[in-house]
Amino acid sequence: MEKKLYKCKKEQKICGVCAGIAKYFSLDPTIVRLIFVLLAFTTSGVLAYIICALIMPDEPTNVIDA
What we know:
Elements: H1 17-25, H2 29-42, H3 45-55
Helix pairs in contact: 1-2, 2-3
């Protein structure tokens, strides 16, 4: 089965971007959220999050957690 990057609605806090990225890379969502917070203070992390939230598709409802 092919891995795809989706926004995760099950573990979302704002839009599900960080949870989706964490699920794709098999990481803890908290780590990805902390990285985005650090990026927001140092670079254009907020802009990157907004772009990801607009571009990333929502997770299909028939996806089974592996």
